[in-house]
Design brief:
The complex is a heterodimer of chains A (about 100) and B (about 90).
Chain A lengths: L1 H24 L3 H27 L3 H30 L7 H8 L1
Helix pairs in contact in A: 1-2, 2-3
Chain B lengths: L1 H24 L3 H26 L2 H32 L1
Helix pairs in contact in B: 1-2, 2-3
Classes of the chains: A mainly alpha (about 100), B mainly alpha (about 90).
Chain lengths: ~100, ~90
């Protein structure tokens, strides 16, 4: 049981690191948001599932499962809301012209 | 097992601290909002892991639940606010 939770937590930490790299390296707001919105949810979910398996059956496990359900519902909702706000306030997309401009 | 959880916690703390660069520098205000949301999500995961290190999960999990709720509400409210700013002008 411990080995399963260790594997899940290592994979979850890898996905959180991927989301941080995407936040730091990608060129545009929309692509950064695309990198965060999925891998952040998946990494948080995997780490919390690993902790719930490690804890065993308890009241704390039920609370951790509640946090997992809340994260799965709330994190894509927040990403969608902030992206719609950015799109409505006319934030410009990153195009190929910007890439050529930054090369020069 | 406790050493492994300590290692995961230190790794996530380094990752979260590198995300603070985007909060400080980010070109638009939406970049800052999204980056602070990511810092908040990583923060409550670190909080639950700290609870496992100290073996007092029942106290830390309640703080983590409150932190997750506040993090979600902050992102939603800031998104609505900067949405309305454009409609006024």
């Amino acid at each position: 049981m411990e080995i399963l939770s260790i594997v899940l937590m290592v994979i979850g930490a890898f996905f959180l690191a991927v989301s941080a790299v995407g936040l730091l390296r990608l060129p545009d707001f929309y692509s950064r948001n695309h990198a965060i919105g999925k891998s952040e949810t998946l990494g948080a979910m995997l780490i919390l599932v690993g902790l719930a398996i490690l804890n065993g059956w308890d009241l704390n496990t039920i609370k951790i499962i509640f946090v997992i359900i809340f994260v799965v519902i709330a994190n894509p909702t927040a990403t969608h809301a902030i992206t719609r706000a950015a799109l409505r306030s006319d934030l410009e997309l990153w195009t190929r012209k910007d890439k050529e401009r930054t090369k020069k | 097992m406790s050493t492994f959880i300590l290692g995961i916690t230190i790794f996530l703390a380094v990752v979260t601290a590198s995300c603070l660069y985007r909060v400080a520098v980010g070109k638009t205000v939406f970049d800052r909002i999204v980056a602070s949301g990511l810092v908040g999500t990583n923060g409550f995961i670190i909080l639950i892991l700290i609870g496992f290190i100290f073996e007092r999960v029942n106290m830390f999990i309640d703080i983590a639940i409150a932190y997750a709720l506040l993090n979600f509400i902050v992102t939603i409210v800031l998104g609505r606010y900067f949405d309305r700013m454009r409609e006024k002008s």
